[in-house]
Inverse folding.
């Protein structure tokens, strides 16, 4: 069989136009050839290969859905309100109808999105959610730009002296999330109700930031300048690595989870170094630190756009939902706590997430406006 | 997630078609290695083989809701990897010796026209790669073969028809989990 004939045959196989006999021949050859050929081995490092391939797959199959709803709903609410007052003045009958519509909008609890504000050293506040992309602010030699929705980037055009360095704070509200690139190339993601305080340029000896809430770091490697993250009661010292800090004031435990690299977690009583796959759990009441293994998927689910619950009790789940959806949670008297497993995109409406928890048959919710009551 | 490790292929497939990303991940973890090793028999370039596996799984995710698999998840995956290798043959991205061998085969050899025989043969060839994998990777695959939670088991356990199980897969698995684990652990899935 000539090369051309072979080409035609293979192409027919690929677009499914070959005859059953041709198919049988090709597939029989395939089996035979497979059996006779040796495997071309290279590194043989399957663990590494598995995660490398998964990393790209995850990137391609879990696109975070950015919704510009803050702009829409904000404007819509304002218009609705105006309409309300105008109509009432002119025609009381019609006013009732538009009030009903407003109620409907209020009862739909939409998911969070890219919302944050930047607090500069001079006290001024730069709202980031609606800002246009491009250069935002210039503070001396430091340029702050918004390269895309949901992310800001710091660049220093020249070296800073100690006097020039000032502190800025990035803050997300309930229902917000944001990403920032620090002047050294470190990438940081903030979950809802979180904050990151950082200098506009890093000093010579170290890189120091302060956080509260939940923040994920991918620290740029710099062996001469350790990166230090402080949160209530503990400091994490890093050389260059990927880790997540969960330090909400309303949570009893502060968790620092390490994905790559190496970190040392220092509290008043103890200093502990952990390896990837581990997390430190700092009990703010007893001031004790313990080390545990952690599920990286569950820890980083928020940064990838979903909730993941591993045998998690309802109260902890509701606290997470409350921060992302900006809702208030109450528990009925007869309520018994249960544990749940599962995952769901966090870009769905709250009603959908609550409905899914209800499918298990062990919990029910009543929603009024932004208040959710948890019942058995 | 441990829970998904217990689920048989047919259950994972159902969950995948409904958009469950964790089911997708479990399918990847279960099959990527045997498919990769199999591909490396014809594909000498590591990057090329890596791309092939990546494309295979990316397509699996995006085509998930259209999938109508008559046979089984494994047959589908094995057929797909074969298809992709032929794609590389078409682009001449395999070694010349394979091309030559194919030409020779088409001229002379005898072959079976029975599709099932060929598929079973392919399945045997791919699955024997298991024995070559590091222990931990083997586990993921072998465990799934022993798993208790496939459709037939569920319908038998619950005394309902197979069809009903497919429709009620979420509730069925939930109730079974109650029976298997003492603590009452509940699963809920992302329904689209």
């Amino acid at each position: 069989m000539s090369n051309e004939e072979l080409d035609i045959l293979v192409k027919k196989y690929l677009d499914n136009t070959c005859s059953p006999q041709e198919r049988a021949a090709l597939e029989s050859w395939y089996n035979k050839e497979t059996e006779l050929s040796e495997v071309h081995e290279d590194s043989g490092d399957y663990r590494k290969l598995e995660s490398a391939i998964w990393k790209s797959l995850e990137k391609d199959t879990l696109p975070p859905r950015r919704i510009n709803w803050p702009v829409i709903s904000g404007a819509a609410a304002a218009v609705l309100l105006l309409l309300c007052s105008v109509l009432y003045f002119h025609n009381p009958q019609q006013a009732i109808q538009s009030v009903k519509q407003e109620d409907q909008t209020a009862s739909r609890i939409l998911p969070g999105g890219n919302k944050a504000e930047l607090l500069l050293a001079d006290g001024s506040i730069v709202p980031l959610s609606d800002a246009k992309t491009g250069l935002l602010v210039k503070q001396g030699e430091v340029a702050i730009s918004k390269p895309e929705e949901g992310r800001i980037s710091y660049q220093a055009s020249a070296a800073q002296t100690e006097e020039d360095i000032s502190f800025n704070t990035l803050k997300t509200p309930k229902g917000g999330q944001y990403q920032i690139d620090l002047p050294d190339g470190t990438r940081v993601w903030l979950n809802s109700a979180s904050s990151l305080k950082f200098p506009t340029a890093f000093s010579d000896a170290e890189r120091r930031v302060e956080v509260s809430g939940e923040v994920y770091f991918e620290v740029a490697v710099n062996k001469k300048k350790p990166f230090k993250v402080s949160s209530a009661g503990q400091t994490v010292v890093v050389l260059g690595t990927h880790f997540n800090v969960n330090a909400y004031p309303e949570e009893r435990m502060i968790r620092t989870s390490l994905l790559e690299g190496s970190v040392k977690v220092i509290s008043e009583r103890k200093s502990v170094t952990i390896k990837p796959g581990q997390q430190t759990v700092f009990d703010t009441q007893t001031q004790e630190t313990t080390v545990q293994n952690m599920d990286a998927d569950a820890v980083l689910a928020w940064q990838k756009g979903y909730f993941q619950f591993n045998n998690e009790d309802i109260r902890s789940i509701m606290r997470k939902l409350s921060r992302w959806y900006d809702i208030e949670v109450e528990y009925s008297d007869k309520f018994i706590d249960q544990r749940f497993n599962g995952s769901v995109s966090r870009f769905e409406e709250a009603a959908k997430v609550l409905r899914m928890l209800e499918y298990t048959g062990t919990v029910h919710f009543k929603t009024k406006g932004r208040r959710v009551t948890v019942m058995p | 997630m441990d829970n998904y490790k217990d689920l048989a292929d047919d259950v994972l497939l159902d969950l995948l078609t409904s958009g469950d990303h964790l089911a997708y991940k479990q399918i990847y973890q279960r099959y990527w290695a045997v498919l990769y090793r199999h591909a490396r028999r014809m594909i000498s370039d590591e990057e090329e083989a890596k791309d092939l596996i990546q494309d295979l799984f990316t397509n699996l995710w995006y085509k998930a809701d259209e999938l109508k698999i008559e046979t089984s998840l494994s047959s589908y995956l094995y057929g797909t990897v074969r298809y992709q290798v032929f794609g590389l043959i078409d682009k001449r991205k395999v070694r010349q010796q394979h091309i030559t061998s194919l030409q020779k085969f088409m001229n002379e050899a005898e072959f079976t026209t029975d599709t099932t025989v060929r598929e079973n043969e392919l399945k045997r060839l791919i699955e024997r790669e298991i024995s070559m994998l590091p222990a931990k990777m083997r586990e993921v695959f072998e465990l799934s073969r022993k798993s208790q939670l496939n459709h037939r088991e569920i319908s038998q356990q619950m005394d309902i028809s197979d069809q009903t199980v497919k429709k009620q897969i979420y509730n069925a698995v939930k109730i079974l989990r109650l029976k298997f684990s003492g603590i009452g652990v509940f699963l809920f899935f992302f329904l689209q």
The radius of gyration of chain B is 19 Å.
